[in-house]
Design goal:
The complex is a heterodimer of chains A (347) and B (588).
Chain A lengths: L1 H46 L1 E6 L5 H14 L2 E6 L2 H13 L7 E5 H11 L25 E13 L24 E4 L6 H12 L2 H8 L4 E3 L2 H9 L5 E6 L11 E4 L5 E10 L6 H11 L2 H10 L2 E2 L10 H7 L3 E3 L6 H11 L2
Parallel strand pairs in A: 1-2, 1-3, 5-6, 5-7, 9-11
Antiparallel strand pairs in A: 3-9, 4-7, 4-8, 4-9, 4-10
Helix pairs in contact in A: 1-8, 5-6
Chain B lengths: L22 H7 L2 H31 L13 H6 L2 H34 L5 H7 L8 H12 L5 H10 L11 H25 L3 H9 L4 H12 L1 H16 L3 H7 L7 H10 L6 H26 L22 H27 L16 H7 L2 H34 L5 H13 L2 H13 L11 H26 L2 H9 L4 H30 L4 H4 L7 H10 L3 H32 L1
Helix pairs in contact in B: 1-2, 2-14, 2-18, 2-19, 4-5, 4-8, 4-11, 5-25, 6-12, 6-15, 8-11, 8-12, 8-20, 8-22, 9-10, 11-14, 11-20, 13-14, 14-18, 15-25, 16-25, 17-18, 17-20, 17-22, 17-24, 18-20, 20-22, 21-22, 22-25
The chains are: A alpha/beta (347), B mainly alpha (588).
């Protein structure tokens, strides 16, 4: 018995000693990581500037976030905005000509894959204090530090659609009663319409999409103006609508509907551009965008945050959109195939 | 075309003046070496501005990948555009452009004649007012016409239904007619501006002679007025037709919902809406169009070669106007009707909408000044305004000087190489803007390091000069065609140097056209987006870039406020310009 107790004591001691050693090592490691990160912070502050390219054009939140970043780190942010294809070509040509002008690009997951595999214009992502804290579903294979999701749903004109008739799901749009009454973003070209097509085609099926095609959709490629056209009564339904725009249209006879199946979404995030002139400031920015300050800003606007627990205390309507079930997004590797399908169905 | 008394260029010997002067003067006026150096410098400049970006695009069309990426040379781009579908789209595009150009030119000629050659009341005011639509961003007039003439709840159709009880709409802007009408909104004032000074510079004695010989007013207009205007008319037709082929906004806004496809929407889609931008396809298609358009230029050269269109000679004339009697009120009514339809209807929507929270929702509780406040408090807008004004002033002036020199050499000399520079100056007009923008990006970014152009405001300036040169050259070509060679020779015979002659005769007599070209170029710069978005850098944003950002974010009302401000600026510019023209004419 004594021997057994001694054995256990020895095991316990060894285990305790091992545990202490591991804990100490972990502590030391964390400490070392903190020290490393502190070096990045100091270096970033010394660089003093960050050049940000963004494909999210005209969003006031970009400046708001840049101001918050400058306030926290004292690093100025210069922002250059252009549409996705334009800004991608700029980056590609600049790097091909040896002009490494930008540090960080704010873009979509799909574009990031092209930056990475075709243009080879991005660097691997750094590990930052906040990068490990985001929801696992947003930790990607492509080198993009996920920041937020843009959700898409259905918009109706409340003057033309009675409450009892309101579509509640994507499937409801196939109801013949909506024939000729739906304004749709063009699904035959990369954009919101194509996102809807991709998501519903893969989740509901080809028959559903073909039924919707029989509804004589009227196509458009100007999302914001299309919202106004629907509000003015040209059409009963506009789809897919950027759900976060609901606050801009308050006061108009429209309603934003989160479909039962969920919202197709585009995941946006930051990539670290090759040979960034301010690499440490760029790392700080990547980390900052995944931290609670920025995540709360985006959640407050209705975007889906990638960090959990950011929607607490938000107004109910904003919270509902920000927390909306994510339905699906596009797959860049299948784009040519799916665009061809869409063009075939929506001739 | 038989009553032109002056000599044509073919009648006079090659001008080889032998005057002294400084080095620059000698470069153009001195012996053949100086002239060759001057011409070479001009070719180099035009080559850099036009051939170099086009060469980059040509590379893009012949290479499997854009510049800077590993790939191979092939003809896949050209092979891929050779489809039946593209031929149909091309035919559709040409049809739309012709359907737009012919009525636009007819109306613009008529309006220019009314304003410049008749005693129609208030024609000075009308001259400013009927050109206003040209200066408004197309996306704004598209939105306004969308509200006015959509088949469901458009204001015009609601009124029509209310008045007649009809169920069917009177007009549908989302149709071929809508696309063509929206294009006409821009081409009529553009063509009017382009031609009005040529009408004004006509010697009325030619028309009077025709009338005295028994020709009717209509016959005089057809046989004298129009024929004398042939250089301006053919240039106008080509500028307008080519622009019609390259049109984008109207087709995208009104054509897409109706299933109407044009070449530029195909190009736009290949760059912006494919998984990977297909620059080889876009550039190949653009070069195919450029090739077709070049045929038009050759046609114009053939048409005008060896003919004289001089109306401004050494013999003094008073630019009299035709007295229409009571008919002047009819012409006045025509101008007012055009003004009401093309300006008051859409601009009224924009003006009204700018005072409400949302366009189209005109209730008391929606009244607001927040859009004006937002614009005035937008520091980025003011910075962009400053940049654009600077670029506009510098760019328009430089472009017009370049255009005047090119046009002078092309029209007033028989130097070898003059056709080459005239052709080079045409090229940017024949390449769709969105593709040419990419050409400038490739060209300037790929310049070797010691040439610090890319990423600076100079890249924008150079692109604007290249983009504006075709119009500048055409405007000045029209003006120079009208000036008699006697004037220059008289000046030289009386001892004036080449530059004195240029300043006292050629500039003095052609400056109204110069001023019109300047305004067209200036506001072209204010509106230019395709190259600006690819070349601007942080701090050098232009107005068009800011407008695009505001529009993309759904701030249509703020875009309208800026559009209205631009229009106000136009009115001031045009008013000052016309004051000067009147003062100048009174001295003639």
């Amino acid at each position: 018995m004594t021997s057994a107790i001694q054995k256990w004591s020895r095991r316990l001691f060894m285990a305790a000693a091992g545990g202490v050693a591991i804990a100490a090592a972990a502590g030391l490691s964390a400490h070392a990581q903190d020290a490393e990160w502190q070096k990045v912070v100091e270096a970033g502050k010394n660089e003093g500037k960050l050049i940000l390219y963004t494909a999210l054009v005209g969003q006031p939140s970009t400046k708001q976030i840049a101001a918050a970043f400058t306030k926290q780190y004292g690093i100025d942010v210069e922002i250059l905005e252009a549409r996705a294809s334009e800004i991608r070509e700029r980056v590609r040509v600049e790097q091909a000509a040896g002009r490494f002008a930008a540090d960080v690009m704010f873009t979509s997951e799909g574009q990031t894959m092209l930056y990475d595999t075709q243009d080879k214009s991005v660097d691997p992502l750094p590990v930052t204090p906040n990068s490990g804290k985001i929801n696992d579903r947003f930790k990607l294979k492509v080198p993009m530090a996920s920041v937020m999701t843009i959700p898409y749903g259905i918009m109706i004109n409340t003057g033309l659609v009675k409450p009892a008739d309101e579509p509640k799901s994507w499937k409801d749009l196939a109801d013949p009663k909506w024939q000729g009454k739906i304004l749709s973003d063009d699904p035959r070209a990369i954009g919101a319409g194509y996102l809807w097509f991709f998501s519903t085609y893969t989740k509901i099926g080809e028959d559903y999409v073909k039924k919707v095609a029989e509804q004589k959709l009227v196509f458009t490629r100007d999302q914001r103006e299309s919202q106004r056209r629907t509000a003015r009564g040209e059409y009963s339904i506009y789809m897919p609508v950027i759900m976060t725009d609901f606050s801009d249209l308050k006061g108009l006879p429209v309603k934003f509907i989160i479909p039962e199946e969920g919202v197709p979404y585009v995941l946006y995030g930051n990539v670290l551009l090759k040979k960034a002139p301010h690499p440490n400031a760029a790392k700080l920015y990547l980390d900052f965008m995944q931290g609670p300050v920025v995540q709360k800003i985006y959640a407050g606007l209705g975007y889906g945050p990638v960090l959990d627990g950011m929607t607490e205390g938000l107004p109910a309507d904003v919270k509902a959109i920000s927390e909306a079930k994510l339905y699906g997004t596009t797959d860049t590797t299948r784009q040519n195939e799916m665009l061809a399908k869409s063009k075939d169905i929506f001739k | 075309m038989t009553i032109i008394p002056n000599r044509s260029l073919d009648d006079i010997a090659e001008t080889t003046p032998a005057l002294g002067g400084n080095a620059i003067s000698r470069a153009f006026s001195g012996g053949s070496l100086g002239r060759w150096i001057g011409l070479l410098l001009l070719i180099l400049l035009l080559g850099f501005l036009t051939i170099y970006p086009l060469a980059m695009l040509l590379y893009g069309s012949l290479h499997s990948t854009p510049p800077g990426m590993a790939g191979e040379f092939n003809l896949n781009g050209y092979r891929s555009i050779m489809t039946t579908q593209n031929l149909i789209v091309l035919a559709n595009t040409v049809g739309i452009s012709l359907a737009k150009t012919i009525p636009s030119l007819t109306i613009a000629v008529f309006l220019a004649w009314i304003v410049a050659r008749t005693d129609t009341p208030f024609r000075g005011t009308l001259e400013v007012l009927i050109t206003l639509p040209f200066f408004i961003p197309p996306i704004l007039t598209a939105m306004a016409w969308g509200m006015l003439a959509n088949p469901q709840v458009g204001v015009i159709n609601m009124l029509w239904r209310g008045m007649t009880g009809a169920q069917e709409p009177l007009v549908n802007i989302y149709s071929y007619g809508g696309v063509i009408w929206h294009m006409c909104q821009y081409s009529i004032p553009f063509l009017f501006l382009f031609m009005v000074d040529a009408f004004r510079a006509m010697d009325p004695s030619l028309e009077e002679s025709s009338r005295m010989c028994g020709a009717s007013r209509l016959m005089t207009f057809r046989k004298i007025t129009l024929l004398l205007m042939l250089p301006v008319l053919t240039s106008s037709f080509m500028l307008s037709f080519i622009k019609g082929i390259e049109t984008f906004e109207s087709a995208l806004f009104f054509g897409l919902p109706a299933g109407i496809k044009v070449i530029t929407t195909d190009i736009y889609e290949s760059i912006n809406h494919r998984a990977t931008p297909d620059y080889q396809y876009a550039t190949s298609l653009s070069f195919a169009i450029l090739g077709l358009m070049l045929l038009l230029v050759v046609w114009q050269w053939a048409l005008l070669r060896g003919k004289s269109f001089q109306t401004v000679t050494g013999k003094g004339f008073r630019p009299n106007v035709m007295e229409l009697g009571p008919w002047r009120w009819v012409t006045f009514a025509v101008c007012v009707l055009f003004f009401l339809i093309s300006v008051v209807l859409p601009v009224g929507q924009l003006l009204l909408g700018s005072f409400f929270r949302f366009f189209g929702f005109y209730t008391y509780d929606m009244l607001t000044l927040e859009h004006y406040k937002a614009v005035f408090n937008n520091s980025e807008f003011w910075r962009a305004m400053g940049n654009t004004m600077l670029l506009g002033l510098l760019g328009a002036t430089a472009t017009m000087v370049l255009g005047a020199v090119v046009a002078y050499i092309s029209i007033r000399t028989r130097w070898r190489g003059r056709s080459l520079i005239d052709g080079m100056a045409w090229l940017p007009w024949m390449m769709p803007g969105m593709v040419l923008g990419v050409g400038f990006l490739w060209a300037f970014a790929m310049l070797p390091g010691p040439l610090p152009i890319y990423g600076t405001i100079w890249a924008l300036l150079l692109a604007y000069i290249a983009l504006g040169t075709p119009v500048a050259v055409r405007v000045m070509t029209g003006a120079y065609h009208q000036l008699s060679y006697d004037l220059e020779e008289c000046s030289r015979v009386h001892g004036a140097s080449w530059f004195q002659t240029m300043w006292r005769i050629m500039v003095a007599l052609a400056w109204p056209a110069f001023a019109v070209g300047w305004v067209l170029t200036f506001f072209g710069i204010m509106r230019e987006l395709s190259a600006s978005i690819l070349l601007y850098s942080v701090g050098s944003e232009t107005l068009a870039v800011v407008l695009m950002k505001l529009w993309a974010n759904g701030n249509a009302e703020q875009v309208s406020v800026i559009g209205l401000m631009m229009m106000l600026l136009v009115i001031v510019f045009r008013w000052v310009q016309l004051k000067f023209i009147k003062a100048r004419l009174s001295k003639l």
